[in-house]
Design brief:
Blueprint (H helix, E strand, L loop, with lengths): L9 H11 L4 E17 L2 E21 L2 E10 L6 H14 L34 H14 L3 E17 L4 E16 L6 E8 L7 H14 L3 E2 L4 E7 L1 H13 L3 H5 L24 E4 L33 E5 L2 E2 L6 H7 L10 E4 L6 H6 L3 E15 L4 E14 L2 E6 L1 E6 L1 H7 L2 E2 L3 E3 L11 E3 L2 E12 L3
Parallel strand pairs: 7-15, 8-13, 12-19
Antiparallel strand pairs: 1-2, 1-4, 2-3, 4-5, 5-6, 8-20, 9-10, 9-12, 10-11, 13-14, 14-15, 14-16, 16-20, 17-20, 18-19
Helix pairs in contact: 3-4
C-alpha cells in the first residue's frame, strides 16, 4: 500500500491510530519528510539524491492509582496495516511503566489547523534550479583561481501532523536547508569554510561564498605561529550561535533550581532577574521570526529534561531568555514550571541574539588593534555544568589582525570558555544576521547572531588541526 492510497494519508493514519487506542489518553505524531541533496568535491558534483520517509510516534497514557504512566513507540515506514500493532505496543509500554513524573492533562482547546487534511509538503531537486548553475559557475572560477571546492547542499521538508484524544488536530510544515562550502589549496595545506542556513535556496549565493573563501585562503598564504594564551578575539556569528545554542540547551529551570547549573543562584533558587552582560543584548526564540519560522506549538516525541509529551500542542509564542542583558526566562515544561514557580517557557526551535550595533564583521576587524579572527568552532564538549565551561577547537582558519588588517593565518587552538561568562565579558556586538552553526548544524539550524568582540578569549592550548 503506497502513502497515496486512500486510508494511508498522514491525517488518516493519525485518525485511525486514535480510533484504535484503548488507553486513557493518546497522542499521535506523523512526520512526513522529503529531502533533496547535492554533494561535490574537487570542483565537480559527485552525488545527488531525493528521499521520502514517514515516522509515526504513538504516545499512550494510562491512569493508575499512583499516577499516569506513558508508553512511547516510534516506527518508520508505517502504513495503515501496521497501525494496530504499533498502538498496542505503546499501550503495553505504558502498562509496564511506572507513573510519569511529568504527567499533566493533555493539552486541549487549541484551534484546528486548517490544512490538517491536506497532503504533505514535499521538496525535490527543483529546489536547486537556480542554485546548481550558480554553483557550477563557482566551480569554474575556483578552478581558474587555483582553489578546490568541496561541500554539500541539503534541503529537507517535514510535514508534522499532531492528533490527540483531547481533540487537537495540528499540522506544521518545516523547511530546512543547509549549505556548507570548503575551499582548499591544491596541496591541502590551506582550508577555509563557509556555511549558510536557508529555507529554499533562493537566498544563497555560491559566487559570494567562493569570493569570501578565496580571500581567506589568500590570508593563509602567510603562516604565523602563536602560543596559547588569552587574546582579543572576534567571534563570527556561526561561532556565537554554536555557543549560545548549547547555553539554551543547558538552561533548564529545574536543574537550575536544584543547584546543578550555571543558572543556579548561590544559596538556592535561580539567577532569573540577574544581569548577565553589560551590553544591551536580548536572546530570544520566536516561531514567527521572519526567515527563521518554526513550529508554533510543542512537538515532543519523548519526555526529557526540557520537553514533555504531555505538552504536545501547547501554543508557543516569542520568549525572551535574556532581555536587555538580564536573564528573564529558563526553559520549562508545564511540570517543571510548577516545580520551580517560573512561567511555562518551552525551548523554541530557533534562537536570535540582537541588541548590538549595525557594525559588520569587516568593520569590527578594521577597528581592531591586535587580535584574532575566528572562522568557526568544532568538537564542542562540556567540561563543568556548574559554570557551563565548554572546550573545543578552532577550525578552517584563525587569522591574526594587526592595525585593522588581517596579516596572516595562525595555528589552531583548543579553547576553554563558558558562553555565559563570554556574554559578561564581551565588549562589542555587531550586526545580527542569519547564520549556520558549524557544530550543531545537524540538529539546530535556525539562528541569527552578531559577531562578538571578547577582549580575553581563552586559547588554552595549541592544536595541530587544519
Amino acid at each position: 500500500m503506497s502513502p497515496r492510497t486512500p486510508g494511508n494519508k498522514p491525517y488518516e493514519i493519525v485518525e485511525r491510530a486514535l480510533e484504535l487506542s484503548r488507553a486513557d489518553g493518546c497522542v499521535v505524531i506523523a512526520d512526513e519528510t522529503s529531502t533533496a541533496n547535492l554533494r561535490w568535491a574537487g570542483n565537480a558534483l559527485t552525488t545527488n539524491g531525493v528521499t521520502r520517509g514517514r515516522t509515526l510516534t504513538v504516545i499512550a497514557t494510562v491512569d493508575g492509582k499512583e499516577g499516569t504512566a506513558t508508553g512511547v513507540v516510534s516506527r518508520s515506514a508505517v502504513t495503515a496495516d501496521d497501525l494496530e500493532a504499533l498502538v498496542r505496543s505503546a499501550e503495553e509500554a505504558a502498562a509496564k511503566a511506572g507513573p510519569a513524573e511529568d504527567a499533566q492533562p493533555l493539552v486541549s482547546g487549541v484551534p484546528h489547523s486548517a490544512d490538517f487534511t491536506d497532503a504533505p509538503a514535499e521538496t525535490s531537486s527543483a529546489v536547486f534550479k537556480d542554485f546548481a548553475p550558480a554553483l557550477g559557475e563557482a566551480f569554474a572560477r575556483a578552478g581558474a583561481g587555483g582553489r578546490e571546492l568541496y561541500g554539500f547542499a541539503n534541503h529537507e521538508l517535514t510535514s508534522s501532523y499532531l492528533g490527540t484524544s483531547a481533540g487537537l488536530r495540528l499540522r506544521h510544515d518545516q523547511p530546512n536547508g543547509t549549505l556548507e562550502l570548503n575551499a582548499k589549496s591544491p596541496d591541502r595545506r590551506r582550508s577555509a569554510w563557509a556555511g549558510r542556513s536557508t529555507r529554499d535556496f533562493t537566498d544563497v549565493d555560491p559566487a559570494a561564498m567562493d569570493a569570501e573563501l578565496a580571500k581567506r585562503l589568500g590570508w593563509a598564504e602567510r603562516r604565523i605561529e602563536l602560543p596559547a594564551g588569552r587574546y582579543e578575539t572576534l567571534l563570527p556569528p556561526t561561532a556565537v550561535a554554536d555557543l549560545l545554542i548549547y547555553q539554551l540547551w543547558s538552561a533548564g529551570a529545574r536543574d537550575a533550581a536544584e543547584g546543578r547549573t550555571v543558572f543556579s543562584k548561590p544559596g538556592g533558587g535561580t539567577r532569573v532577574g540577574e544581569r548577565l552582560t553589560r551590553l544591551p543584548l536580548s536572546l530570544r526564540s520566536d516561531p514567527h521570526a521572519p526567515g527563521l519560522e518554526s513550529a508554533p506549538f510543542v512537538l515532543a516525541h519523548a519526555s526529557g529534561d526540557d520537553a514533555s509529551v504531555f505538552d504536545n500542542g501547547l501554543p508557543l509564542g516569542a520568549t525572551e531568555w535574556i532581555s536587555g542583558g538580564e536573564l528573564r526566562h529558563l526553559t520549562t515544561t508545564r511540570h517543571s514550571a510548577g516545580l520551580t514557580g517560573l512561567p511555562v517557557a518551552p525551548a523554541g526551535d530557533n534562537l536570535i541574539l540582537d541588541g548590538g550595533s549595525d557594525t559588520s564583521l569587516d568593520e569590527m576587524v578594521a577597528a581592531t588593534g591586535r587580535g584574532l579572527l575566528l572562522t568557526c568552532l568544532w568538537y564542542i564538549r562540556e567540561v563543568d555544568p556548574a559554570t557551563l565551561l565548554l572546550t573545543g577547537l578552532t577550525r578552517d582558519g584563525v587569522y591574526l589582525v594587526e592595525n585593522g588588517e588581517v596579516v596572516g593565518e595562525v595555528n589552531n587552538f583548543r579553547f576553554n570558555e563558558s558562553p555565559v561568562d563570554l556574554l559578561g565579558r564581551a565588549t562589542e556586538a555587531g550586526r545580527t544576521e542569519k547564520t549556520l552553526p558549524r557544530e550543531w548544524g545537524d540538529w539546530f539550524t535556525r539562528a541569527a547572531m552578531p559577531a562578538l568582540r571578547v577582549p580575553d578569549f581563552n586559547m588554552s592550548s595549541v592544536s595541530q588541526g587544519v
